[in-house]
Specification:
Four Helix Bundle (Hemerythrin (Met), subunit A)
Length: 200
């Protein structure tokens, strides 16, 4: 859903990508930094109810910074001819770990009902899995469904900020994510079905 906007944002980040390259950051190194920021976000979520709800603000900042790294690593790879099949694979694996870590942090922190947290986590993983499997059989999946990673981060970020003032909002956000990711999985399964049916 936000794929076109994401591409425009990436086009505007050329200067930042050039700075990262000059500082010696390869795409894989940037992916690792993004992953570490995701872990920091997860920790902030986990301790927010015990320490202070202001840790939720830190959680969002770390999460968005992780998303920034996720955008920059691809730009560096393409701009400076450092793209590789392994790099794309490695980035995707770290993204999945990052997603899981953040949801687990929210669940551990008691910021959502465990069942909804698990539902959102499973849905998030399945959204990515269905894309990987579809593209593995030659079906393009970009922009299919409205709960891709960028949308999920945006939804979680908005509800987290609301939760600073009204803590139960984060549970509502997880319910929204659980529903949206499940619908996206259904959309993707149906899309693959249609494409493969036409090709037979």
């Amino acid at each position: 859903m936000l794929t076109k906007l994401k591409k425009r944002v990436q086009e505007m980040l050329g200067a930042e990508a050039a700075i990262a390259h000059r500082l010696g950051f390869t795409p894989n190194k940037i992916s690792i930094v993004g992953f570490i920021l995701s872990l920091a976000s997860a920790v902030a979520y986990a301790i927010a109810p015990v320490q202070s709800v202001l840790f939720l603000v830190l959680a969002v900042i770390f999460m968005l910074a992780s998303g920034f790294c996720d955008a920059i690593d691809g730009i560096v790879a393409r701009t400076f001819n450092q793209a590789s099949v392994f790099g794309a694979f490695f980035d995707s694996v770290l993204d999945r770990y990052a997603d899981v870590a953040i949801y687990v942090g929210i669940i551990i922190g008691g910021l959502c009902t465990p069942i909804w947290g698990l539902a959102a986590l499973v849905g998030s993983v399945l959204v990515s899995y269905t894309r990987a499997r579809a593209e593995g059989v030659g079906v393009k999946m970009e922009s299919v469904g409205f709960a891709e990673r960028a949308e999920r981060m945006l939804i979680l970020g908005v509800f987290t900020i609301i939760a600073v003032f009204y803590l139960p909002a984060l549970n509502i956000g997880m319910i929204v994510l659980a529903v949206f990711t499940s619908v996206t999985v259904i959309q993707r399964v149906y899309h693959v079905f249609k494409v493969l049916k036409k090709s037979n």
